[in-house]
Structures are given as C-alpha cells and as structure tokens.
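User: I need a structural model of Putative transcriptional regulator from Methanoregula formicica for a docking pre-check later this week. Nothing fancy, just the predicted structure tokens so I can convert them on my end. Input:
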Amino acid sequence: MRRVTHSCCKKTAGCKPEGKVPDIPEQIQQELDRLGGLDALLERMPPEDELEETSRVYHALSDPLRLSVLYLIRDQPLCVCIINRFTRLSGSKLSYHLNILKESGLIEGEYHGNWIIYSLTEKGQQFVAEPK
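Assistant: Understood. Predicted structure tokens for Putative transcriptional regulator:
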C-alpha cells in the first residue's frame, strides 16, 4: 500500500518554502507573514542532525524499562549484574536496552576488568534529576 501525503502546497517531499502558500486560512497566512514568511519559519527549525539526536533521546526515554535503568543508576554507577536483578531480563535483551541508552548519550559504560560499570551522562542526569 502506497502512503499518500496531502499538502497545502500540492507537493510532498522536498516542499520548498517559496512565497505565499495558496489556499490556507487567512489567519494562518497573517501569522506566517508576521513571523517573516515560510523562509523565516524554516530557519527556526533545528538542523537535521539535531532533530535526529533529539529523536534518539526521546526513543530511549519512551520505554519504561529504559527509564527504570536510568533511575537505578541515578544515585550511583552500577554493573550489569545489579541492573539485571531489578529488570530480570535476559542478557541479550538488557544489552539491547543499554545500547539504546548509550547511543542516545544518556548513559556511558566504563570497563573495570571484566565488569562494565554504567553511569549517567550529564544529558542523562537532566532527565532523572531529583526534584529540588
């Protein structure tokens, strides 16, 4: 099944903001004009790499199990064996979730001999900080 995207500018992918958009409510056009037009609206968008990074973080935070891991290591770094006592996942599933948290920049793992000790990064601390 092919996905059909409807757009007010009669284009789908790669719609370039050029001039006024036909067939939109006057109120919306006035607000766009107030902001400086479509080009100004586009300039307010974060760069693509920043959108991708933010998406990775929200994906990591969207799973209750991964949030649990963040809260477990909030107060002190822990090894996988302690994290696993709380999550009760198989090694491969826990590794999968830890990897998502690492790729999003919320946790980091540091080798201590045969052990990997996981801790929050500064970014990770922002999401599970204790209320003041």
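Before docking, keep this in mind: The beta strands are 78-79, 107-112, 115-120.
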